[in-house]
Design a protein that fits this description.
11 strands, alpha+beta, single chain, 252 residues
């Protein structure tokens, strides 16, 4: 450790010297031996001793069981069970917040499949599993949109036919054309205002979802991963929905 502090001091001194030196001065550069980083490189035993208690505490916390699933939770397919599950969690969390803070109800939820980074295998669901699935610090945003502007959302699915998970939405695409679009089983009222829950990334137009930019962003302060962890903890046994929400007819 003393050597590390010595090296740090030398580095800081060198940086200070560089600030005062003339830009035209050239230092005496000497070729040094490269240090290969591999398995033969020894650990700093003092540093390992310092962090070991924290590592053990973190490992214990991250390996705790928070739920269980009798099936593999995957992100594959247009209506993946993990995608549907996390979209439903997003809807429920945002709806609870909106009822308390806005005195409104959320109408639907939409998340992006690429934000789900991996799958969860059959068996116990560990806290670490959720961090692997959702490693990002995304916030849940509620976007207030006019019924007329929702056509952009449906056109997006018609054009991309990407399996971005939805909740309380049914979108039917036939050979690249929107043939049916429902929110909570009802057709869109162009004069109505709708509240759509999503991530801050998508609300800002990420993944080319520019249609969200026509709406009004409402911050909830809820981190998506924290919400997912909370909902997994509430459900000792996860039962994901496998209903059809995205129906791409004639998809190649």
């Amino acid at each position: 450790m003393k050597n590390k502090f010595l090296l740090l001091g030398i580095a800081l001194t060198a940086l200070s010297a560089c600030k005062t030196a003339s830009p035209l001065q050239v230092a005496d550069v000497q070729t040094q031996k490269n240090i290969s980083i591999n398995n033969e490189l020894k650990n700093d035993e003092e540093f390992v001793k310092v962090i070991e208690p924290y590592k053990q505490k973190l490992d214990k916390e991250m390996n705790q069981k928070i739920s269980h699933t009798n099936v593999d939770l995957t992100k594959q397919g247009d209506n993946s069970n993990l995608g549907n599950l996390l979209a439903d969690y997003t809807f429920d969390g945002a709806d609870t917040w909106a009822k308390t803070n806005l005195k409104k109800e959320v109408d639907a939820a939409l998340i992006n499949i690429e934000g789900i980074r991996t799958t969860i295998g059959k068996g116990d669901i560990l806290l670490n599993s959720v961090f692997e699935v959702m490693p990002f610090e995304n916030e849940i945003i509620i976007v207030k949109m006019k019924g007329t502007d929702l056509q952009g959302l449906f056109d997006y699915y018609a054009k991309t036919q990407v399996n971005n998970p939805v909740s309380h939405l049914y979108i039917e695409i036939n050979n690249g054309h929107v043939t049916k679009a429902l929110i909570n089983g009802k057709t869109i009222n162009p004069d109505q205002e709708y509240y759509i829950a999503t991530s801050d990334y998508l609300a800002l137009g990420g993944d080319n979802m520019k249609f969200f930019l026509k709406g009004e962003m409402i911050h909830t302060g809820i981190k998506m991963r924290d919400l997912f962890i909370d909902y997994f903890k509430r459900s000792p046994e996860v039962n994901p929905s496998t209903d059809i929400r995205l129906n791409f007819i004639g998809k190649k």
